[in-house]
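The pair is listed for reference:
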Amino acid sequence: MIIPRILHQTWKSEELPPTFKKWVSTWKERHPSWQHILWTDEMNRKFIATDFPWFLETYDAYETNIQRVDAARYFILYHYGGVYVDMDFACLRNIEPLLEGETCVLGREHDEHCKTHKKSLIISNAFIACAPKHPFISMLCNEAGTALPKTYSSNTRVLESTGPFMLTRVFEQFPEKKSLKVLHYSAMYPLTKSEAKKALPVEEAPAEIKEKLKNAFAIHYYYGTWWRFRKKKVLSVFGIKFKNKK
């Protein structure tokens, strides 16, 4: 089965911050024939309650909303298939060449991020493409309900319970790894977090940054609204107002 040409994205509501609107438009412009679905928090919960009621109790019990957003993307992809991309992704070129002949396409994060987290591999959940009912995505859905030790810090619990650390763990356990296409970071994650700041906007990026984007299909800007300790600083960079909530 092929990967459906559906682009899934999710945000709190239908009202997108201006920067996100700009980045969403880059995906639409480069994939004009694709269906685009913006999933709001309300739509996510209704979808889980209707199509995966067995998971609703776990979904509602998550301590942070980002865990619900993480989990929802796995269930959406399992049900519909298609391509999920985070809002803080800007598309540079059509990604269909990456999908041809594949049933599941993932992207590894930059090696520098692996060093930072003392990991040999990190496969991000900010970009995932798959055919419906893919067994790897099924494993992600099941793993998203696994309880974790409270000894983890709050940020680590997110990463390990529903985020990229969890996805990487499932990948390492998946028996049919050869059926999955894992892109080199140069394709979808060509820049580190610090480098990505220099590509805002990309047209004004230094020459050394533009060189790293020559073969890239997208830029991930690592916006991260859920990083509580950085909220005000990050939001000011992107020109987005946000009220702190405990």
The beta strands are 6-11, 35-40, 82-85, 89-91, 104-108, 123-130, 181-183, 218-220. Residues 228-246 have pLDDT under 50 and may be disordered.
